[in-house]
Design brief:
By secondary structure, this protein is mainly alpha-helical. It is about 65% helix and about 0% strand. The chain contains ten helices and no strands.
Length: about 200
């Protein structure tokens, strides 16, 4: 029971930190998207999710992704007022939506013209997408209270990925979050001697 409670405390602290990263990511993406499409979440006529480029097969893939993104936005609006603001919709969108914006087929429509500006010059789309996808899976495992010390969760490696992605987006915000995080304190309370060292947590 003691180990279970410790695991829950570490998971809860980890979810808080990942939540801060999610906010930083969505704000960075929204900032770049709104430069060209100011009301992309609330304007039914917005052409953001109608962008297609390339050969027919690529356009078909992009079209499917666009439809899926529009559906996610519609789902997010269901829990809001009848006339939600752009900020309200952005805050209600899921991590999965933000992750989907950097899929390979969206390189010519979203990454190249807009989203690459959310990161330092030279940052590769594939690297960002891989980091975001890993962080999303990590967040889900923490939410389901999976063992943080398991190789499946891989807390040590995942925290490195959280740090890497956060610093790419906003190093100052990462430093502030890290300074006020409860995660290290929670990890230090591990009731099993040597576990945190053996699993790369310390």
């Amino acid at each position: 029971m003691e180990t279970y409670l410790w695991n829950s405390q570490v998971a809860a602290a980890g979810i808080v930190d990942v939540g801060h990263l999610e906010v930083a990511l969505r704000n960075a993406y929204d900032r770049e998207l709104t430069r060209r499409f100011p009301d992309w979440t609330v304007d039914p006529q917005s052409s953001l999710f109608h962008l297609e480029q390339g050969v027919q097969r690529a356009r078909a893939q992009q079209r499917r992704r666009n439809i899926a993104s529009q559906a996610r936005i519609t789902d997010a609006k269901r829990g809001l007022s009848s006339a939600p603001t752009h900020a309200e919709v952005v805050a209600a969108l899921t991590f999965g939506l933000w992750s989907s914006l950097t899929l390979g087929e969206r390189t010519p429509t979203l990454w190249n013209p807009m989203l690459h500006r959310a990161f330092p010059k030279g940052t590769k789309r594939a690297r960002v997408h891989d980091l975001v996808a890993r962080v999303v899976k990590f967040r889900n495992r923490l939410a389901h209270n999976e063992p943080v010390f398991s190789t499946r969760t891989g807390l040590g490696d995942r925290l490195v990925e959280v740090k890497t992605l956060f610093e790419l987006i906003d190093p100052d915000a990462y430093a502030y979050v890290a300074e006020h995080s409860n995660l290290d304190a929670a990890i230090s309370e591990c009731p099993i001697p040597g576990l945190t060292t053996a699993t790369g947590l310390r």
